[in-house]
Design goal:
single chain, alpha/beta, TIM Barrel, Helicase, Ruva Protein, domain 3, 2 domains, eight-stranded parallel β-barrel, two-stranded parallel ribbon, 14 helices, 44% helix, globular, disordered N terminus
């Protein structure tokens, strides 16, 4: 068995990979993954030596709902199945305050979760204070991530990360939720964040403009020590950073992941076969979503509602971007589509 860590990079700089395929991937399949699917992929990722496997509804703990989609399995079922499947990998979960509650955190802890990520909009870090405090009291590794991070300045992101550490975060990071960044954008932001905190810094990329791997390498070079990536890029819209591409590229440029390449490739094959009807791709709508700076998870709903109302989904995305829509505002898609329908062809009044 040939491992991803080859002799020439064995002494390279270590970097940790977190795999949210079983959480973020849910956005691409309407939160419909079943027990056998979770179990099969979790075991494969564990065998490959992926350090952290994240599971849950696409929007995190407590988010299964009519507004953003009902999950096929409950949080309890997803946590139990994945916990049992992991022998070496740590179990991670994600929560957005408002969807999830302290009760959901306590429930996750009862399932022996190893890492809890609390996500907030990039300018609303104060919403994480209570939850991070509870996790600190319980001695659970608690990371905080800023979503839709392109909507805040470099200085704002650094300041909010410092604030999250004061609240008890043991790691901080940003999500390129809309796949809007270019490598220079990532370098500037991660550099400022690393200068502002003394805890690990994380980057989570989306591939709307085809830049997810390049952006992730830029993040590592700027000082990020945790990178998110999903098998086959499984995730919302054009998908996330592609795990089985990122790992060997990191190794090639001198980082050490500790992940077994052949087993990782096997896990990616399992993911494509078992989890998704087809791997995500950079299509026209995904490009528009990235350019508009709109959350990638809106893609399916935008397409559905646009078809129903007879409007161009590209116009919907650009209008959502103009209104600075964020995750959790799915109801706004209907408002935008109705307004465009009423304004005539091309959405022009």
């Amino acid at each position: 068995m040939i491992e991803a860590t080859s002799p020439d990079v064995a002494g390279g700089k270590p970097i940790q990979i977190h795999d949210p395929s079983l959480r973020d991937g849910h956005h691409a399949v309407r939160h419909s993954l079943g027990a056998d699917q979770l179990r099969a992929y979790a075991r494969a990722a564990d065998a490959a030596g992926v350090p952290v496997v994240e599971v849950g509804h696409g929007n995190g703990l407590g988010a299964s709902s009519l507004q953003v989609g009902r999950a096929r399995l409950s949080d309890d079922e997803m946590l139990s199945i994945t916990r049992d499947a992991l022998t070496n990998s740590k179990l991670g979960v994600f929560m957005l305050p408002g969807w999830g509650t302290t009760r959901d955190i306590e429930n996750a802890i009862a399932h022996d979760v190893d890492l809890v990520r609390i996500g907030t909009h990039c300018t609303e870090s104060s919403l994480a204070e209570r939850h991070l405090g509870i996790l600190a009291e319980r001695g659970v590794d608690a990371h905080a991530v800023l979503l839709m991070s392109h909507m805040a300045s470099v200085e704002q992101l650094a300041a909010h990360c410092a604030r999250l550490v004061e609240f008890g975060a043991t790691g901080v990071g940003i999500m390129d939720s809309a796949g809007h960044y270019l490598p220079s954008d990532v370098t500037e932001r991660i550099t400022a964040m690393c200068a502002a905190v003394d805890v690990p810094v994380m980057f989570h990329g989306h591939n709307n403009l085809g830049m997810a791997v390049a952006n992730s390498i830029a993040a590592a070079d700027a000082g990020a020590s945790i990178l998110d990536a999903c098998a086959r890029g499984f995730g919302a819209g054009a998908g996330n950073t592609q795990l089985e591409v990122l790992v060997p590229v990191l190794e090639r440029v001198g980082y050490r992941t500790g992940i077994d390449l052949y087993r990782l490739l096997d896990a990616a094959d399992i993911a494509e076969r078992e989890l998704m009807p087809a791997p995500p791709k950079v299509d026209s709508i995904s490009i528009v979503s990235g350019l508009a700076g709109v959350f990638s998870g809106f893609k399916t709903r935008v397409l559905d509602i646009s078809a129903r109302e007879g409007v161009d989904p590209r116009d919907v995305f650009f209008e959502l971007g103009r209104r600075q829509a964020v995750a959790g505002q799915e109801d706004l898609i209907v408002d935008v589509a109705l307004a465009l329908r009423g304004s005539g062809p091309g959405g022009q009044s």
